[in-house]
Design a protein that fits this description.
seven-stranded antiparallel β-sheet, 32% strand, mainly beta, Umud Fragment, subunit A, 171 residues, two-stranded antiparallel ribbon, 9 strands, 2 domains
Length: 171
């Protein structure tokens, strides 16, 4: 009986496995594996999401089971064609967790309602503030007691660019 070589019916059937399509083995130098994995993770690869929640109070044992993959676009960006990112500058929104250098995710398709944090262009200058509407007028409110509210008047050229939906900052 001959040994080695291709045999009819041997091996894994094509199109089976996680992706239901044929696979192809590749060889990667061992010294480059970490670099390639980091590249894949930062360029659209979905990160693992564990089934157990992390306790913010008394610690509990962690489960070793993954719930699936976490797609940050799915959780942070509801309307991709209407979403942009902008970096915050200054300290006027510190009470709501927006710090100097944070990245803000802004959705242009959302309505700028009372109480929402918005990106506004006032006379050509961008700012991030909370929109406040009352019988006394429309204001852009800071979230820091050291800053004063900005009253919107007829002489101002104001354009609301969008509503801030998420803030990204390092701890």
């Amino acid at each position: 009986m001959p040994r080695g070589g291709a045999r009819i019916g041997a091996g894994r059937p094509k199109g089976q496995g996680k992706y239901n399509e044929p696979t192809k083995p590749i060889r990667i130098p061992a010294s480059m594996i970490q670099e390639i994995l980091e590249y894949v993770q930062t360029n659209g690869y979905k990160l693992p999401l564990f089934t157990s929640a992390v306790q913010a109070g008394f610690p509990s044992p962690a489960d070793d089971y993954m719930e699936g993959k976490l797609d940050l676009n799915k959780h942070l960006i509801k309307h991709p064609t209407a979403t942009f990112f902008v970096r915050a500058a200054g300290e006027s929104m510190i009470k709501v967790g927006i710090h100097n250098g944070d990245i803000l995710i802004v959705d242009r398709s959302l309505e700028a309602k009372h109480g929402k944090i918005v990106i506004a262009a006032i006379d050509g200058e961008l700012t991030v503030k909370r929109l406040f509407k009352s019988s006394k007028g429309i204001y852009l409110m800071p979230e820091n007691d050291e800053y004063k509210p900005i009253k919107i008047t007829d002489i101002n050229d104001v354009v609301i660019w969008g509503v801030v939906t998420n803030v990204l900052h390092e701890l």
